[in-house]
Amino acid sequence: MKKQAKKALVVLTGVLVCFLIVTMAACDSGKDMPDNNESNVYSVTFIAGGEVYIVTDSKEDGTVKLPADPTTDEGYEFTGWYLDDGVWQEPFTAETKVSQDTKVYARIEKIPAVTYEVTFIAGGEVYIVTDSKEDGTVKLPADPATDEGYEFTGWYLDDGVWQEPFTAETKVSQDTKVYAYIKQVVFNVRFLVEGSLYANVRIDEDGIVNIPSDPEFEEGYAFEGWYLDDGVWQEPFTTETLAGIPVTSDVAVYAKIYKHVLAPTSGGTIETLNIGSRVWSTNDYVFTSLPQVFLGKPYILWTINGPNTAKAISSGWLYVITGEVLDFGTASSQMVVLDEQNFTLLDTSYWNIWDAALKNNVIYEKYVEPGETFTLGRWSVVIMSDEQLNVKEGEPLPTDEEMAVLLPAAGDNVVNMALKAVVFTDRAQYTFYDMPYWLAGKNYIQTAYASSSHSAGIAKSGLVYMLTSKAGNISQVQSLVDKGWEDVTATIDPDLNLFGDSSQNGGFMSNTYKGFALLKKYCQEGETITWGQWGIPVFSGELVLSDDIATLAAASDTTFAAKADDGMRLFTDRTYYAMDGLPEALKGLTYFMDTIEDGATVRAITSGTAYIMVPTGSNVYKSLETQVKAEGWQLVPFRYFRPAVGLLFMGKMYYKHVEPGEEIHYGKYNLVFGAPMDEEDYYVMPSLTTPADIIIHPEGERYDTNKQNWLGCPTIERTEGGRLWSGWFTGGERELGTGNYAIICLSDDDGKSWKKELAVVHPDTAVQVTKPELWMAPGGELWLIWIQHTGTGNFDGRMGTWASVCKNPDATEPVWTAPRRLSDGYMRSKPIIVDVNGVETWMYAAFDWMQPHYTRVYASTDKGANWSLRGKSECIDRSSGKNNLDDPVLTQKPDGTLWLLTRPSSGNNVMESFSYDGGYTWTHAVKSDIIGPQSRLTVNLLSDGKMLMVFHDGTSRANLTAFLSLDGGQTWKYKLLLDERGGVSYPDTIITPDGKIYVIYDRNRTTDREIWLSVFTLDDIVAGKFITEDSRSKILVDKAWTA
Fold first, then answer.
1. Three-state SS for 309?
2. What share of the chain is helix, strand, coil (3-state, %, to 5)?
3. Per residue, what are the HEC states of 686-731?
4. Which of 962, 965, 986 is nearest to 976 (CA)?
5. Residue 192's beta-bridge partner residues?
6. How far, in Å, CA of 693 to CA of 758, rounded?
7. Would you say 519 and 537 are in contact if contact means Cβ atoms under 8 Å apart?
């Protein structure tokens, strides 16, 4: 027990000793620390660049607040603090904790050098590519070489501006392009001909330029000088234009080239026309008299016999002089050719154009456009002008309207001034053989050569002119001046030699008489003028008729009395000869129509003066004229005139006193004129004056589709209420024959079923009602338009577009207005509405068979109340030999241009014409790029600027297709086949506000005799197939089921 107690005491003692030792050690280790826990803070020394940067203490948690980054030399950067100097693997951050005094080292690194690519460009091409230096500067390359006249002035950053130079000190901070400024120090004049460089001429130190030789051109073109202002031609360029002027660039100079209207293409040269100029290149004839406006104008000097061909290279006016056909035969006249090419006959007078055979010369006029080509044969002269000319302007004598009309004294006569006319009543050997243009066609008093005293009364106030000798005992100059006449001799040719004897020895051209003098005086109606021997009074050449014109009546069942006026046909069996250019005095008289061969048979009802027109000509009609003269008819003092376009002969007027019961009949080619009648006594074509009847709910065999021999040319419209209207024409033995009428149907179930609503039938079975056209006008009015013409052929000489309007087309019983005639011509497409200078204008096109190469455009500015001719388009392609502007389609392009298209007549190109002034003027119709058969087409401008065309995809009447254009009709990007079968034709198209498109068309008018309908949308066209819900094709509208 004692041993255990002793052992425990020893252990306890050991523990106490250990405790004391530990306690003392602890006291010893902490004897130098402050009382506030100083033993937890350490000193941290920051060293940068080998030197102490800053010394700081750690925080209680052992972290250290980092000092600001030390600054570095250029090209160096501070990248952080580290504990391992030079190794840089132990970064020292604000989160790093220290447990003892510590040294921290700044890592300062050199920044790697950065270079950029610098591209030097000279003359638009890369000259050299280099890198920048470490400091961003660039070693400049050697200066680039330059062409003669140029120098290098430095490198620049701003190409073409040259305000930011680039030098060896310029520093770059990115890839850079630098441009060489190569400055021109010597300059040239660039002479340009129609856009091509003709010559490059250096400008000398004084600014003087050596002008190159004039460029040469083919016939028809003329060089007119060099100019600085291309197209304006107000700044001519000469050798010294640049003298004394600082020049800092090349100078462009432009050749002014005058294009004559025509260029001869088969020989001939362009000359300037004057008295004495050669007429043709193959003989020595020269011009002796010309209209004043022709003098100084260019003309083509070509052969007398031709054929001579010319092509228009510029727009302008042509004037062609040729002779009357029947005086010298068709081979020596170009009247037929000029008529066919739509030249307009301006004047017909006997005058000496050249020192050749005497003949009746005529003047034609036409406006041409580039590309037109025509060929003329014998005896033709072509004169050109940039502007339209008045052939009477500038002449010594004024127009007939300004001149007096004279009544001759007993024994004297009124005679028309013409070649070969006898000057005196008692000297037949003296005739006019040198007739200047300004005298031709005027009238004069034919007096006795031997008489020394003459007088005449004034029937109409105006100017009277007197021809007399300049000197000698017969000269009237002084005596007339004493009576108040004005001497105007200076206005005429001093060598004028008007007449002589049969040997053409001029009576006034001797030294005694000194030639002709001309005097004038204004005289009042009722006044009497007097003069002495060898005075020749000249006055108005207008047609003056008797006050006692006889009343005449038709004396044959085939002769009809009609009112003379332009547009009336001359003969009952020649619809294409319609009066045109009729003398004013004849308009309103009664004339008598019969066949061209038989002529009218007429009987006088009252006594008085009757008139007859007989044809001129050397042989063909001489027997007729001889017979007329033998029966007492006398020549009317009036120039010859052509009563209708296309006639080969001129007309001359004769008169005779007739008594009641006297019969007049002379056979072919004459027209008899008498006093006016009451309007109801005149024959007029019923198609012109009598409207067709509108028969509501037509019934009976006549209107039974199954009884018809044919049907075709349909039309369609949809009302605001959704009702569909359709129509076509049928009836009679054949298309375009007597008995034709229009049938109009309606559908209230979107075309699933149809009922006949009305028929348009003329009460005169000789009148055709053809080609109906339905059109919805603004305000919900439905227009029904149709064509009326008389006879069994395709054309009656006038034709006419008629219309009736329904103001309630959705009603149970629609009401139609009385029909009215809108215009001449043959309208075949729906009207359009356009804005012309702020005026809402309705327009439609109607082709004109009287002038078979024209389509006329009619316009209304009062919502269809009145229509008037706005303009007309001419087709210059006459290869078909017939009307080639059939079935016109008038539309508008997205840019506002009016676009007139007509079916092909020869070949497969649709013809097109454009108007840029609201339809007043039109370009000549030429072949377009639209190809198809000789059939109708439709073209519509959509509200979003797209264009829709329905035509055939190919050159036959098959594959009727809808085409869509996105570029104003230039191309047709999308298409939808509507009907692939043969014999489909004549579509009519509408686009409804809800986007539906309806196309109605016929199929095999005389065999299948069917009308079909397709309905679709633009989406279907784009897809090329019928994809929309309501779209459908080949819906049968009507059919003749039995023959």
1. strand
2. 10, 40, 50
3. HHHHCCCEEEECCCCHHHCHHHCCCEEEEEEEECCCCCEEEEEEEC
4. 962
5. 197, 254
6. 10
7. no
**One-letter-per-residue 3-state SS of 543-557:** CCCCCCECCEEECCC
| CA distances (Å), origin 368, targets 219, 312, 906 | 18, 7, 22
Same domain, yes or no: 689 and 707: yes
Domain end residue (candidates: 231, 259, 287): 259
- Residue-range definition of the domain harbouring residue 676: 552-683
914 located within any domain: no
d(CA 125, CA 123) in angstroms, rounded, equals 6
Specify the DSSP class assigned to residue 292.
Answer: G
Six token digits for residue 705: 């589709």
Reported pTM: 0.73
On the CB side of 29, CA atoms within 13 Å amount to 6
Using CB atoms within 10 A of its CB, is residue 806 exposed (0-12), middle (13-18) or buried (19+)? buried
Note whether 465 and 492 are same-domain residues: yes
Q: Do 360 and 434 fall into the same domain?
A: no
pLDDT at 374: 87
Task: Lowest mean pLDDT of 5-19, 527-541, 783-797, 909-923, name the range.
Answer: 5-19
* Residues constituting the chain: 1043
What tokens were used for 147?
């062409």
684 vs 562: CA distance, rounded Å: 7
The one-letter amino acid at 679? E
Count how many domains the chain has. Answer: 7
Full DSSP string of 4-68: HHHHHHHHHHHHHHHHHHHHHHHHHHTSSS-TT-GGG--EEEEEETTEEEEEEE--TTSB-PPPP
CA-CA distance, 902 to 883, in Å (whole number)?
11
Query: pLDDT tens for residues 735-758?
Result: 888 899 999 999 999 999 999 999
Based on the domain organization, do 379 and 408 belong to the same domain?
Answer: no
Strands 188-193 and 251-259: parallel
Reported confidence tier of residue 507, pLDDT bands at 50, 70, 90: low
pLDDT of 698: 97
Q: Please give the structure tokens belonging to residue 41.
A: 């803070």
User: What pLDDT, on a 0 to 100 scale, did the predictor assign at position 745?
Assistant: 98
**Tokens of residue 217, six digits:** 């051109």
| Domain co-membership, 61 together with 192 | no
Report whether pLDDT(163) > 70: yes
